[in-house]
C-alpha cells in the first residue's frame, strides 16, 4: 500500500486538536509502522526540484503550424520571478490548458528530478525560456498524465511565488507491507489508526467524522429507492448500494489536491467521477465504481453469476470470456461489470457523461479471489475485497463520494438511494483479562488490556476477570481469544516482551527407527557405496518400460495435481527409477563405475481413491475415521543400491572386478546386519530383474525386497549400461531386533574344519549352509561357503559345495574328535535334507 506521509499526519492532527502541531520524521514514522506490526518496503521522498519553480498564468497562446505534432507558443506571466517582470516565452506541446490558466513553470536554472536542467533555447523557430510542468516532471508520479498541471482558479495564486508548497513537494511516500489478514490497513483510515496507536495519539474515524479528512458531507437524507437491484443469493454478496449524481459538468476533472493524493498512492487521475471513487477507496478502503446513467438499460440491475460463454469488455480493453463462477452486475442489455474486480467498457464514464451512478458493495472474498486469479486480473479493488472490506462502509462511501462529485463537477445528489443487505453482526469473543500477561510473561494491567482492545475498535464488556469482546466490523480476522492477545501485545510493543531462553528438556535420543536408518546408511557408506537423494517424483510411464502387469502393486501410484515437471507427475512406489536415472547420468558424463545407495520413503496409494469429507461440526464416526485412514497413502521407508561397471579397479595387485548380482545381494546382507535381522536369500523372478539372476530377500518367511542383475531388455530400453545390478528392500517391513543380553566372548581358540558336499545342480547353496549350521550343534560358530566345483567326475548336473566350519566352546579348548563328530552330524543332516554326499 503506497501512502503519502502528509496524508496520514493530516488525519491525525485533525483528529487531535491538542496535537495540531504534531510532526514526525520519515524514520520515526517508519519505526512507528514496525512498532505496531506493519513492515514497510521502504520510503522515498518526492525527488527534489532545485532552482526557480514558480506559479505563472498563461496570458496568450499561439498555435504553431507546419510540424508533425501540435505545438504551442505561450506567453506566461511569472511576475517578478524572471527578474524583468516581462512575459516568459515558452514552447509547449500540451493541449489541456487555456489562456488564463494558472500553471507551474520551471524557469532557466531550475533542475527537475532526474537531473533535468532547464535552459533557454530556440526550438520550433521560437525562443523557449522555461517549461510548463506536468506531474511526472515534478516527480509526483511515474506515469505521464494527459497534460500539464493546472491550478484551481478559486485560489488566489501569487504570480512568481514558489510552487513547491502549493504542489506539496516536501512529502514522502511509504510502501507499507499489509498482510492478507489486515485488509482494513489498505487505506489511509486504517494506517492512520495504527500510527495513532504507535505514537499515543487520539484517533477519530473519518468514516464517522468526515470532517477529519477535510470533507463536509452534505447530501440529502435518502427518502426512497433509486433503482431496483436484484441480488441473487448464490452470489454471496453481503451488501450492495447505489447513489446518483445528476447534472455534472461533462469532462470535469478532479482538483489538484485529489489528483496529487491519487498519484502518490500509485493511481492515475482520469476524470472527476473515476477519481472520486478511487479517492474514497484510498481513504476508507471501500472500492467503488461509477456508471454512466445514460448507458444503463432498463430500471433494474441484477447481481448474478455469469452465464456460460458470456463476454465482457473490461476497462483494460480486454474482451474476457466469463466463467459461471464469476459474479457480475448486469442490466437489460447484458453484463456491465465483473463484480469486485473491474468494470466494463460499455458503461464507463466518458467526456459526455453528465449523470453518474455511484456503486459500493461488499463482495464475498473467496469469490473475488477466484475470479481475479481465473482471469489473471488483479486490481486495487480485488486486492481489498480478497482481504475483507468493512461492510459498514457501503452507505458512508456512497454519501462521501456523492458529496465530493457534486462539489467538484457541479452536480446534484439525488435524494434517493438503493441499499440491499444489512451489516452482519460480529461474533463475540470471551477472554480472561490476565491471558495477555500470562502469554507475554510480563505485567500488563487490566485497564491496559481493555484500552488496547478499544483502540482496535472493539466493544469490551467486563464481568470479573472475563472480558466479552465484540470486534469491529472492519476486523473479521478477530475470531478467538488468541487474536485478542495478539492485538494487545502488538500495540504494547512486541519488542518489550522479555526474551527468556527456555531450559531444554533432557533429550530422549534417537528413536529405534531413526537409529536403524542411520545404521543402514553408515553401513552402506562404509562398504564403498555413495549416497544420493532419490526424488520422490517419477515418470508415469516407467512401469510400461519395465513391462509390469496391470495389477502389479507398484502401479498403485499417487498422481500430483500440480507437478513441478510434466514428465514426473506421480509419486514413486519404488526408488529404482530415480536410482537408475543417476546411473544413466553418471555414465553419460564418463563415470561408468558407480555404486550408489539411497534411503527414502516411497508412496503407495491407499485403498480408497478419494478422501471422504466428514462433517466437521462434530467428531467423525469410527467408520469415517477408518475411511479417512484408508484413503491416505502408505509411505514405507525403502533402501536401494545400484551398481555398474567395476567395483574393484585394476592395479598392481590384480585385474579389475566387475560389479555382479552377488554384490547386490551382499549389499542386502549389509543392510540386514545393520538392522540386526536374519536375511533369507532365495531364487526368484521379478521384473525389472533378470529371471535367472534375481534373489528374493525374506525375513521370517516374508519377502521384503529383491536383488540381482537387471533384465538386459529393460536396460537397453532405458539406456543403461549392460549388467547393471540393483537391490531394493522395504526397511519398514523389517522387524526390530529384540533387546538381548550382550554376547559372551570365549577366551578359548576356535577350531576350523572343512567339508565338501556333492549335491544336485538345482539345490541352492544357501539351503545347504543353513542345514549345516542348524545340525552342527551348539559348538558351531559359523558356516561359510568358500568354493563351488563342477566336473564330469561328479556326475551330470552335480556340483560340489565346500564349506568352512568354525567351532568354539565358551568353557574349554575343543578337541578334534568333538569337532569331527559335529561335522559328521551336520553332513548326515545335509544328506537327509538335500541328498548330499561327502566328496572324497
From TrEMBL:
Domain TRNA-binding: 47-164
Top EC class, one word: ligase
Superkingdom: Bacteria
EC number in record: 6.1.1.20
Cofactor mode of binding and number, as noted: Binds 2 magnesium ions per tetramer.
Cofactor: Mg(2+)
Location(s), subcellular: Cytoplasm
Record-annotated B5 domain positions: 424-499
PANTHER family xref list: PHENYLALANINE--TRNA LIGASE BETA SUBUNIT (PTHR10947:SF0), PHENYLALANYL-TRNA SYNTHETASE BETA CHAIN AND LEUCINE-RICH REPEAT-CONTAINING PROTEIN 47 (PTHR10947)
Name of protein: Phenylalanine--tRNA ligase beta subunit
Originating species: Corynebacterium meridianum
Amino acid at each position: 500500500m503506497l501512502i503519502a506521509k502528509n496524508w496520514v499526519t493530516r488525519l491525525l492532527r485533525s483528529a487531535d486538536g491538542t496535537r495540531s502541531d504534531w510532526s514526525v520524521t520519515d524514520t520515526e514514522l517508519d519505526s512507528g509502522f514496525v512498532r505496531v506490526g506493519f513492515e514497510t518496503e521502504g520510503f522515498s521522498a518526492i525527488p527534489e526540484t532545485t532552482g526557480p519553480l514558480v506559479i505563472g498564468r498563461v496570458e496568450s497562446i499561439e498555435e504553431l503550424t507546419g510540424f508533425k505534432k501540435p505545438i504551442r507558443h505561450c506567453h506566461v506571466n511569472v511576475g517578478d520571478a524572471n527578474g524583468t517582470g516581462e512575459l516568459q516565452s515558452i514552447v509547449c506541446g500540451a493541449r489541456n490548458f487555456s489562456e488564463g490558466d494558472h500553471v507551474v513553470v520551471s524557469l532557466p536554472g531550475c533542475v527537475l528530478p532526474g537531473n533535468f536542467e532547464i535552459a533557454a533555447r530556440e526550438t520550433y523557430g521560437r525562443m523557449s525560456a522555461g517549461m510548463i510542468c506536468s506531474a511526472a516532471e515534478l516527480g509526483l508520479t511515474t506515469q505521464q498524465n494527459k497534460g500539464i498541471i493546472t491550478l484551481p482558479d478559486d485560489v488566489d495564486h501569487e504570480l512568481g511565488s514558489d510552487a513547491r508548497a502549493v504542489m506539496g513537494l516536501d512529502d514522502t511516500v511509504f510502501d507499507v507491507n499489509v498482510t492478507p489478514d489486515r485488509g482494513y490497513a489498505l487505506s489511509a483510515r486504517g494506517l492512520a489508526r495504527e500510527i495513532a496507536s504507535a505514537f499515543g495519539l487520539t484517533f477519530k474515524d473519518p468514516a464517522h467524522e468526515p470532517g477529519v479528512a477535510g470533507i463536509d458531507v452534505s447530501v440529502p437524507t435518502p427518502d426512497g429507492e433509486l433503482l431496483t437491484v436484484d441480488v441473487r443469493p448464490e452470489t454471496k454478496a453481503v451488501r450492495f448500494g447505489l447513489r446518483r449524481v445528476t447534472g455534472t459538468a461533462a469532462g470535469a476533472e478532479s482538483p489538484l489536491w485529489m489528483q496529487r493524493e491519487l498519484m502518490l498512492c500509485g493511481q492515475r487521475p482520469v476524470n472527476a467521477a473515476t477519481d472520486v471513487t478511487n479517492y474514497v477507496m484510498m481513504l476508507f478502503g471501500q472500492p467503488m465504481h461509477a456508471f454512466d446513467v445514460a448507458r444503463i438499460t432498463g430500471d433494474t440491475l441484477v447481481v448474478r453469476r455469469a452465464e456460460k460463454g458470456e463476454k465482457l469488455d473490461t476497462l483494460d480493453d480486454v474482451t474476457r470470456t466469463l466463467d459461471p463462477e464469476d459474479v457480475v452486475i448486469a442490466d437489460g442489455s447484458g453484463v456491465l461489470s465483473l463484480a469486485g474486480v473491474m468494470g466494463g467498457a460499455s458503461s464507463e464514464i466518458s467526456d459526455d457523461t453528465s449523470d453518474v451512478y455511484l456503486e459500493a458493495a461488499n463482495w464475498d472474498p473467496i469469490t473475488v479471489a477466484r475470479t481475479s486469479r481465473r482471469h489473471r486480473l488483479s486490481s486495487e479493488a480485488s486486492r481489498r475485497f480478497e482481504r475483507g472490506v468493512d461492510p459498514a462502509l457501503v452507505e458512508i462511501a456512497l454519501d462521501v463520494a456523492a458529496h465530493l462529485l457534486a462539489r467538484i463537477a457541479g452536480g446534484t445528489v439525488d435524494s434517493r438511494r438503493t441499499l440491499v443487505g444489512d451489516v452482519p453482526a460480529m461474533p463475540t469473543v470471551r477472554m480472561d483479562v490476565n491471558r495477555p500477561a500470562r502469554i507475554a510473561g510480563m505485567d500488563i494491567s487490566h485497564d491496559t488490556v481493555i484500552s488496547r482492545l478499544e483502540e482496535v475498535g472493539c466493544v469490551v464488556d467486563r464481568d470479573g476477570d472475563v472480558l466479552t469482546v465484540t470486534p469491529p466490523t472492519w476486523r473479521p480476522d478477530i475470531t478467538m481469544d488468541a487474536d485478542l492477545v495478539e492485538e494487545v501485545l502488538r500495540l504494547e510493543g512486541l519488542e518489550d516482551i522479555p526474551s527468556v531462553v527456555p531450559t531444554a528438556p533432557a533429550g530422549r535420543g534417537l528413536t529405534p527407527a531413526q537409529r536403524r536408518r542411520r545404521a543402514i546408511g553408515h553401513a552402506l557408506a562404509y562398504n564403498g557405496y555413495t549416497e544420493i537423494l532419490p526424488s520422490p517424483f517419477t515418470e508415469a510411464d516407467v512401469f510400461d518400460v519395465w513391462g509390469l502387469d496391470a495389477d502389479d502393486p507398484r502401479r498403485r501410484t499417487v498422481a500430483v495435481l500440480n507437478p513441478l515437471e510434466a514428465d514426473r507427475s506421480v509419486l514413486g512406489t519404488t526408488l529404482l527409477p530415480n536410482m537408475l536415472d543417476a546411473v544413466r547420468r553418471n555414465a553419460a558424463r564418463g563415470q561408468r563405475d558407480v555404486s550408489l545407495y539411497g534411503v527414502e520413503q516411497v508412496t503407495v496409494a491407499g485403498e480408497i481413491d478419494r478422501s471422504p469429507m466428514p462433517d466437521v461440526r462434530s467428531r467423525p464416526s469410527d467408520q469415517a475415521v477408518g475411511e479417512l485412514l484408508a484413503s491416505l497413502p502408505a509411505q514405507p521407508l525403502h533402501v536401494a543400491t545400484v551398481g555398474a561397471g567395476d567395483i574393484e579397479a585394476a592395479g598392481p595387485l590384480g585385474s579389475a572386478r566387475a560389479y555382479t548380482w552377488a554384490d547386490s545381494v551382499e549389499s542386502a546382507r549389509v543392510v540386514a546386519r545393520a538392522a540386526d535381522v536374519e536375511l533369507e536369500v532365495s531364487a526368484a523372478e521379478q521384473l525389472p530383474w533378470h529371471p535367472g539372476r534375481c534373489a528374493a530377500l525374506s525375513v521370517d518367511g516374508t519377502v521384503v525386497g529383491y536383488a540381482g542383475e537387471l533384465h538386459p531388455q529393460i536396460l537397453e530400453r532405458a539406456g543403461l549400461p549392460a549388467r547393471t545390478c540393483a537391490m531394493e528392500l522395504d526397511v519398514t517391513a523389517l522387524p526390530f531386533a529384540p533387546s538381548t543380553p550382550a554376547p559372551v566372548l570365549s577366551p578359548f581358540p576356535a577350531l576350523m574344519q572343512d567339508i565338501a558336499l556333492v549335491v544336485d545342480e538345482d539345490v541352492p547353496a544357501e539351503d545347504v549352509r543353513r542345514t549345516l549350521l542348524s545340525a552342527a550343534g551348539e559348538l558351531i560358530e559359523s558356516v561359510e561357503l568358500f568354493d563351488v566345483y563342477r566336473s564330469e567326475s561328479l556326475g551330470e548336473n552335480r556340483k560340489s559345495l565346500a564349506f568352512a566350519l568354525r567351532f568354539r566352546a565358551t568353557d574349554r579348548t575343543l578337541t578334534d574328535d568333538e569337532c569331527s563328530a559335529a561335522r559328521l552330524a551336520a553332513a548326515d543332516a545335509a544328506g537327509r535334507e538335500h541328498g548330499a554326499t561327502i566328496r572324497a
